[in-house]
Amino acid sequence: LKKRVSLVLNCFVGAMGKDGYGGGAAPAGDLKPRQYDHPIAIMGGGMGGLMTAVDLLKRGRTDFIILERYDSFGGTTWRDVANETSKLQTEKGTYLVEYMDPEVHNPDDMKTWPSRDRLLEMCCDAASKKGLDDKAMFNTSIEKLEVKGDTLAGGHYELNVTTEEKSETIKVAALISCPGVFFNPVDLKWDGNKEFGGYICHGSYDSINYDKLKDATVCLVGHGGFSIENVRTCVEKKAKKIWVVCRHRHLSGPKMVSWMVSGAAIPIPGPVVVDAFQVMYGLIGLDVWKHPAVTTNAERSTATLTQATTFGVTDIYFLACYYKVCEVIEGEVDKLSKGTAHLKSGQAIECDVIMKCLGSTGDPDFDDIIGLKHYYGWWVNGDPLLPVMAPSKGVQAKNFAGFSLAPGYCGQVLTNHFFIDNPELFEPVREWLPKQARVEGYECNYIYKSSAVLASMVILRGQFPVLDKQLTEADGIKAQKHCAAHPLEKHIAECVSEWQMYIKMMKDHGQ
Predict the structure, then answer these.
(1) Do the bridges between strand 435-437 and strand 16-17 make them parallel or antiparallel, or are there none, so unpaired?
(2) How far is the CA of 157 from the CAs of 36, 106, 160, 172, 421, in angstroms?
(3) What gap in Å lies between CA 286 and CA 278, rounded to an integer?
(4) How far apart, in whole angstroms, are the C-alpha atoms of residue 328 and residue 251?
(5) Does the pTM exceed 0.85?
(6) What b-and-e string marks burial along 49-63, b requiring 16 or more CB atoms within 10 Å of the CB?
(7) Nearest-angstrom CA–CA distance, 173 and 50
(8) Which residues, other chains included, contact 70 with Cβ-Cβ below 8 Å and sequence gap of 6+?
(9) Are 464 and 414 in contact (CB under 8 A)?
(10) What confidence tens digit (pLDDT) does each residue in 379-415 have?
(11) Please, where are the H alpha helices in 16-78?
């Protein structure tokens, strides 16, 4: 305890200047960022990995490598999981590789909700601008991590990697892992698949034959982000009718609510978010306050939203439901027969297409690759040089600061690098962080609950004033970038224009 208090006080005293918290490069007293004998490795060239690399450069660290299993930047979500028709569901203003630079914004000619291909282009352009192509080893997979000696006293990590041409061992000082949480589509098979006679596909991984949707009755199975996206796609591809069959009708986020929480300088309380959701849900006759995801009190002065999937941000889903082009049934498919999906409730849905939108599992091998036994916060086995950026896909919050990915990654990137610079500060606070043990028989322990991140942040910000100052300054970037890219009147006009365009589209299609 004495050692912990001494280190924490050293950090606090060294951080203070005559006007309050100091802004020097050294995080505490006379401590200087630790230098290493081997490069820092970043696993993954998606948004998390690229933001990590850009911040390392900003800190003056150039001795790092990026290990990416694809042949370019962009990450699994956009390179593998997304469809040809996929778009960013949140706004472009806070979704960019250089998010942490207040002076950098996505270009004006990029659409508010850019396509998959435009986002991949953005990632590659930003990487080239920062010279990251020369730092990357593409088509490279990590097979195993081994710890060699005391990594804080002359030791290192060895990564066994494979490329298209060879296998090799790389010595590294640290591994910052951004493995992604989408790896394989969740699948279901039903009795009667062969008898069905129609078209069955997954609603992600670019596996849809869009020609099959025209004039078809489509049964979407599931109610997550890809179901919401594919309601829009089915409308665009002239489907005749859309049925969404799901065990739980998860909440979806209207576009103006997404705009509101991203543009706010402080988190928006749950009751305000629920009331804002109700504007759209009122159109389709649902009371959000009575939704199973919402926990509140008698006065409705508090509201906690909890569900297993993130909010799919959309307006077109609500529009399609309003016009009965889309209808939602809470239930489960039991079996199939010719042209029909039979639910466990006994209801039968005649359809031509069944599209499975059941989500994805994580990488089944990553737990073993990284040697995960337990987490402290999001650090593997409590090692400050082995952070993992892989928060869960669900929602559990009573205040909302945004639905976009980059602002969440920002805090983790800064915290990871704080301890890369000063790993000796981690040990005194390790036991204070949420601990999560590996569950044997479960393949994706590396995907942790977002509550573990929130709890860890509260603890670490309270103990390290310099880190808290960095995070506080970063918190202000979100609203600044968002409001610069999406002024209120302009954004409302865009949402109205899209709304009217899809009304006309559905009328023109005879839907």
Answers:
(1) unpaired
(2) 12, 37, 10, 5, 17
(3) 8
(4) 12
(5) yes
(6) bbbbbbbbeeeebee
(7) 19
(8) 45, 76, 79, 80, 138, 139
(9) no
(10) 999 999 999 999 877 898 999 998 998 998 999 999 9
(11) 47-58, 75-76
